[in-house]
Amino acid sequence: MAKRKAENRSFLDKWEAEYLFTYVKDKPVCLVCGVNVAVSKEYNIRRHYEMKHHDKYKDLDMTQRSQKVEEMKRSLVSQQNMFKKATSQSEAAVKASYIVAAEIAKSARPFNEGEFVKKCMMKVCDLVCPEKKKAFSNVSLSRNTVADRTCDLATNLYDQLMEKGKDFVAFSLAVDESCDASDTAQLSVFIRGVDSNLCVTEELLGFKSMHGTTTGKEIFEEVSKCVTEIKLPWDKLVGLTTDGAPAMCGKKSGLVGMVREKMREENCAGELTVYHCIIHQESLCAKALKMEHVMTTVTQVVNFIRAKGLNHRQFNFFLEECGSEYADVPYHTEVRWLSRGKVLNRCFELREGICQFLETKGKDTAELREQKFLCELAFLCDISSHLDALNLQLQGRGRIITDMYAAVRAFKTKLCLWENQMLQGNPCHFPCCQTIKAQISTAVFPCAQFAEKLSVLAAEFSRRFADFDVQKCRFELLSNPFAVDVENAPTNIQMELIELQCNDTLKSKYDAVGAAQFPRFIPDTMPQLRTQAAQMLSMFGSTYLCEQLFSSMKMTKTTHRRRLTDEHLRSILRISSAQSLSPDIDELASKKRCQVSGLGTSD
Fold first, then answer.
1. Which of 119, 307, 344, 528 to pair with 274, CA 20 to 30 A apart?
2. Distance between CA atoms of residues 580 and 204, nearest Å
3. pLDDT tens digit string along 285-308?
4. Quick one: DSSP state of residue 197?
5. Which residues form the SPIN-DOC-like zinc-finger domain (predicted)?
6. Which residues have C-beta within 8 Å of that of residue 322, sequence separation ≥ 6?
7. Which residues does the chain have with pLDDT short of 50?
């Protein structure tokens, strides 16, 4: 050890000219052959020079040697820059392939669209920047490459979700099931988790293909796998929202009953809160009006016009001749939430033109011209428009359940107002009814009948949303904690609630940021309130995300792509549904190498 310390291991500048060596990244490098010398000792460097290069350069004087060294050093730097540039271009090509693959997945296009994109890129490059053609050609976008990239992106998103899940203090699930183009049952499971900072993460947890039956037990097993695979503890599950199907909400053999049993087995202290999707229930409430006969007549008229190409063309031409504001009538699709209202409103606006066209076709229009039918059509148009407006309020990502409940409560209050006004013969919030009432005798317009229907609808809303009314106190703790009666609050948060309500600084903050953002400002000294807020923020009010995902699924797995594998379908939908997470393309690209290829190869 003493001998090693005594030796001078630092590289000396004079060795450059004497032995044609330089110092690169803490290692002596021969400028002639590029060999590294492990130990920076003059003996090692001199021995390498004398054995390999002495005979070639022995006749050079010091001036010539110095010039040669500078020339060799410039050449070495040039080579290093060239390798760096090549590496940089390679990484850029891989990143580009990931970015294009992500866009293809989001747009629900086939994997072989990558080859079409590359052809377009190369043609654009030829005209705009031909000197960059080689860089563009290095971007591999073959079908297999795009498929692999899609799976990589989806795996990266799932890994990020798993990492975020470690910080969740509460989470809820939204579960729904539908069939794809090949009649395979697909189960979608979304998670809404809240971390210790009360930040919300709302992402697709699992998308499971079920090739057999879809009983409550089998659905539970798939949901259980989703929770277990992401390593989430069952005691942090606080809410479960489903579409209300028997296999989902059964108390014993359904998903809800089995999840509760699982939580009991895991000795979970908290109680699971279960909701039937608010949007589904709102749609079901409309059936209480019992006006299917009106909708049936309207649907028959629309089908007569749209079913045959000749009728449809002649109707469009008829409307054009009449100078109508509208050019067509839409089909009614039962599964689309807003379809009913759109069809009714269009038919009401075109009611006279439709009657005239049907008469030219020899159809009886007596029913369509009856005052009773026109009154019922007008009422159904107006109430459907109001229901559609509520439906739109309830749709969307990131909706807080308290806001959704507030929208439903407001609608129930409106129903009471409309009922009283209708009894007084004043349909001021029903424009179609006003139009018909002005055209016929006021005595003929059945205000009392429509007031009764509004009363029935209000009763149906109260019945179906009773489970939400039970949670009213918990909702108020999130939406307006400063107005909550402390005596009605749970005993474990009463002391903290008093401290909160008496804190003027927090009250000012609440007024400034609003109810949605305020929970983040609740101090750590109020842990029970923060826990309560986290649980409420994690709640799903509807299965809207599942329905939206199924719409994407039907655009992705069409009749022309029925052979799309379950893994690829799952990967595509995970990418297209990602909201709070985005793929780490830099990390993915760092693990790949670029292979210069044509259109038909992949890396």
1. 528
2. 11
3. 988 999 999 988 988 888 888 888
4. T
5. 13-71
6. 353
7. 1-7, 86, 594-603
Q: Contact, 489 vs 497, CB < 8 A? A: yes
CA 21 – CA 15 distance, rounded (Å): 6
| Both tokens assigned to 164 | 């975020």
**End-to-end alpha carbon distance in the chain:** 51
Write the pLDDT tens digit of every residue in 308-326.
888 888 888 877 777 777 7
Which residues does residue 195 pair with via DSSP β-bridges, in sequence order? 168
Rama region for 126: left / alpha / beta (φ>0; ψ in -120 to 50; rest): alpha
Q: Which tokens belong to 26?
A: 């803490």
Distance CA 307, CA 397 (A): 36
Contact in structure between 519 and 537 (CB atoms under 8 Å): yes
CA atoms within a 13 Å half-sphere pointing along the CA-CB vector of 379:
28
Contact 561, 139 (CB under 8 A): no
Secondary structure letter of residue 36 according to DSSP = B
What is the secondary structure of 137-162 as a DSSP string? HTS---HHHHHHHHHHHHHHHHHHHH
Cα 300-301-306 angle, rounded to 5 deg? 95
> Residue 236 corresponds to which tokens in the numbers above?
């942090």
Read off the DSSP letter of residue 208: E
- The two three-digit tokens of residue 345, written as one number: 């409103």
Which strand (E) or helix (H) includes residue 30? strand 27-30
The b-or-e profile of 53-63 (16+ CB within 10 A means b, else e) is beeeeeeeeee
Residues 6+ apart with CB under 8 A from 316: 327, 328
Residue 94 is encoded by which pair of tokens? 């891989």
Q: If we measure between CA atoms, which residue out of 333, 315, 332 comes closest to residue 324?
A: 315
CB 222 within 8 A of CB 206: yes
Pairing of strands 27-30, 21-24: antiparallel
The gap from C-alpha 453 to its chain's centroid, in whole angstroms, comes to: 38
**CB count in 10 Å sphere of residue 454:** 23
| Three-state SS at 186 | strand
Query: CA 174 to CA 404: how far, in whole Å?
Result: 15
